[in-house]
């Protein structure tokens, strides 16, 4: 897992700890220990094109939620598989999951 360095502090250990906790919770809830190993590395977006793409997707999503502007989100939405909105608890206590079958649009958000 490569994540973007945003400050002078190294947050790699914190992310590793959070992933470890998530694995523990998963194992407790489902009785299955993950069979994979996650390597965590921080990097500069200039060195990883994937981070630049992720930055753009997240920026578009942020504008969608904070400004109610969907022109950038509409551009990236066809490439998104899933958005889990933890704050949208209208249907479920765990939030709302948006997919191709249930798209994240301004109209869907306005039904709040």
List keywords for this structure.
112 residues; mainly alpha; two-stranded parallel sheet; two-stranded antiparallel ribbon; 44% helix
Report on the architecture of this protein.
The protein is globular. The longest helix has 19 residues, at 12-30. It has helices at residues 12-30, 49-67, 71-76, 106-110, and strands spanning 2-4, 41-43, 83-85, 96-98. Strands 1-2 form a two-stranded parallel ribbon. The protein is mainly alpha-helical and 112 residues long. The chain is built from four helices and four strands.
| Gross morphology | globular
Largest sheet: 2 strands, parallel
DSSP helix count?
Answer: 4
Strand order of the largest sheet: 1-2
Based on secondary structure, the structural category is mainly alpha
CA radius of gyration: 17 Å
Helix content: 40-55%
- For the terminal residues, how far apart are their CA atoms? 34 Å
Fraction in beta strands? 5-15%
Report the average pLDDT across residues: 90
H/E element sequence:
EHEHHEEH
The total beta strand count reads 4
Spans of 5+ residues with little confidence (pLDDT < 50)? none
Quick structural overview:
This protein is mostly helical and 112 residues long. 4% of the residues are buried.
């Amino acid at each position: 897992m490569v994540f973007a360095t945003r400050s002078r502090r190294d947050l790699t250990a914190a992310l590793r700890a959070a992933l470890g906790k998530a694995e523990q919770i998963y194992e407790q809830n489902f009785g299955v220990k993950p069979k994979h190993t996650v390597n965590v590395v921080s990097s500069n977006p200039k060195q990883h094109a994937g981070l630049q793409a992720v930055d753009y997707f997240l920026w578009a999503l942020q504008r969608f939620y904070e400004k109610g502007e969907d022109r950038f989100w509409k551009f990236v939405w066809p490439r998104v598989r899933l958005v889990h909105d933890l704050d949208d608890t209208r249907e479920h206590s765990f939030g709302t999951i948006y997919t191709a079958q249930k798209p994240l649009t301004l109209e869907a958000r306005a039904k709040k």
